[in-house]
Design goal:
alpha/beta; Aminopeptidase; OB fold (Dihydrolipoamide Acetyltransferase, E2P); 11-stranded mixed sheet; 4-stranded antiparallel sheet; 10 helices; binds zinc ion
C-alpha cells in the first residue's frame, strides 16, 4: 500500500452534519454512512462526499436511500479525536438521556450526540426497507483496511461483501458505540477501518468500502455501477496476503498516567511473538502476552487502547457457526459441563473449574462473545441476534 504519499488528509472545518442524501426512485434498503465520529479521522467524511457527488448524478438508478453523515463536527474542525469526550462511547440509553438532559449547558460532544441521534432517527423513520450502518474510521498506525462487526449473522453477511479481513470480537469489547446502539434497534452494521488517519489512500479505501457496502445492501446493481467491481479488485489486491477472518484475543488498556509509548515502526496485522516488546511505559517494557498478530498499535495521544492482539481462524468456521446458530444450538448448550444459563436469561455462566477448554470456543461460535469476568465464573453474553 502507498503510505505518506500525496497530500495528507487534515482537519475539516465548516462541515454540515448531513453530507448528502440520495433517495432512489425505487424503494429499498437505507444505508447510513457515518464518517468522523472521531474528529482526527477525516478520511471517511471525504470518501462519503465523493460517493454522494457521484450518486447525485445517478440517484435515479438507486433502489433505496443512501445518507452520508458527519460525526463529530467540532472535533473534525479541530483535527482532534474529540474535544471533551469520545463521541463513540456513550451510545447507551443512559448516555443519550444524559446528553439530552444537559441541554444548552452540555459539552460539545453532548450537542453533537443529540443532533446526530435526531438525524438518524429521522432517516430511520423515512426508511422504505431494512437499515444498514457503515461506520467509517481510520487508525493512528499504518495497516491495511479491515472491518469489524457485532457478531450477528446479518451484520456478518453485510461485512462479507467487502473483501477485507473481518475481525470478530472487537465490537463486543467496546461499550457505548453507535454500532452497538443501532444493533439494538435491528440495524445490521459494520465498522470499516480504512487505513492510517492522515494517509490519502485511506480515503480511496473508504470510498471502495462504501461502494461495496451499497452493493451488498442491495441499493445498487453492479452491472450499472462499475465502481463496485473496481472497488472489489482494489481492496482484494490490497489485502490479498492477509487472513479473511480473525478473532480478537487481547486488548491492552492504558491509562493517561502510565506514559505509554508504542515502539516505532509497528503496524496492524504484523506477526508478533509471545514476550515481544511492543511498547514502554513508566514501569519499563510492555510485552505481548501471547503470540498472534498486532492490531491498531496506538500512535496518538488520545485513546484508551494501547494495542490489540488478534488471531486468524479458517473462514469455514464462519459457516459452521452460522449453521449452529440457525439450528439454535444455544438452546442445549447448557447441557455441557460447567455451563448454565444466567438467571436473567440473556447469558451463559461458565464455571471455570468445570468447563473444558472448548466451551468458550463453542460459545463464541454461537455469538456469545461479550465476557464479564467474576474470577471463578465468567458470564458470557450475546450482544445481538
Ligand atoms: Zn475511530
Amino acid at each position: 500500500m502507498v503510505e505518506e504519499a500525496g497530500t495528507l488528509v487534515g482537519p475539516l472545518p465548516g462541515l454540515q452534519r448531513m453530507l448528502g442524501r440520495v433517495r432512489g426512485s425505487q424503494p429499498g434498503p437505507t444505508v447510513i454512512g457515518v464518517g468522523g465520529l472521531h474528529g482526527n479521522e477525516p478520511a471517511g467524511v471525504l470518501a462519503l462526499v465523493r460517493v454522494l457527488e457521484e450518486l447525485g448524478w445517478r440517484g435515479g438508478e438507486l433502489s433505496g436511500e443512501f445518507v452520508g453523515l458527519a460525526g463529530n463536527l467540532a472535533a473534525l474542525a479541530a483535527g482532534r479525536r474529540y474535544l471533551g469526550r469520545d463521541l463513540n462511547r456513550s451510545w447507551t440509553p443512559g448516555g443519550l438521556a444524559a446528553a439530552k438532559d444537559a441541554g444548552p449547558a452540555g459539552s460539545s460532544e453532548d450537542k453533537e450526540q443529540v443532533e446526530l441521534h435526531s438525524v438518524i432517527e429521522e432517516v430511520m423513520a423515512d426508511a422504505r426497507g431494512p437499515v444498514f450502518l457503515l461506520d467509517l474510521h481510520t487508525t493512528s498506525g499504518p495497516g491495511e483496511p479491515f472491518s469489524t462487526v457485532l457478531d450477528s449473522l446479518r451484520s456478518r453477511k453485510f461485512a462479507l461483501g467487502i473483501p477485507v479481513p473481518l475481525i470478530v470480537g472487537l465490537g463486543e469489547l467496546v461499550e457505548g458505540t453507535l454500532l452497538g446502539y443501532l444493533a439494538n434497534r435491528g440495524v445490521a452494521g459494520i465498522v470499516f477501518e480504512g487505513g492510517k488517519h492522515d494517509n490519502p489512500s485511506s480515503v480511496d479505501a473508504s470510498e471502495a468500502g462504501i461502494w461495496l457496502a451499497l452493493a451488498q445492501a442491495g441499493l445498487l446493481d453492479e452491472g450499472t455501477f462499475p465502481e463496485v467491481t473496481v472497488s472489489r479488485d482494489r481492496l482484494s489486491a490490497e489485502t490479498k496476503d492477509l487472513p479473511k477472518a480473525l478473532e480478537l484475543r487481547y486488548r491492552h488498556p492504558i491509562s493517561e498516567a502510565e506514559g505509554f509509548k508504542m515502539l516505532s515502526g509497528l503496524r496492524s496485522f504484523q506477526r508478533v511473538g509471545e514476550g515481544e516488546i511492543l511498547a514502554r511505559n513508566k514501569d519499563g517494557p510492555v510485552r505481548a502476552p501471547s503470540g498472534g498478530r498486532l492490531l491498531m498499535p496506538l500512535y496518538q495521544t488520545q485513546g484508551e487502547d494501547g494495542f490489540f492482539l488478534i488471531r486468524e481462524f479458517h473462514p469455514s468456521w464462519l459457516r459452521v457457526s452460522e449453521y449452529l446458530r440457525r439450528a439454535r444450538v444455544d438452546r442445549i448448550i447448557h447441557w455441557l459441563p460447567g455451563i448454565r444459563r444466567d438467571s436473567e436469561g440473556d447469558g451463559m455462566v461458565v464455571n471455570r473449574r468445570m468447563a473444558r477448554w472448548f466451551t468458550l470456543e463453542i460459545l463464541h461460535l454461537l455469538g456469545y462473545r461479550k465476557e464479564v469476568d467474576y474470577g471463578d465464573r465468567l458470564v458470557v453474553l450475546k450482544q445481538v441476534e
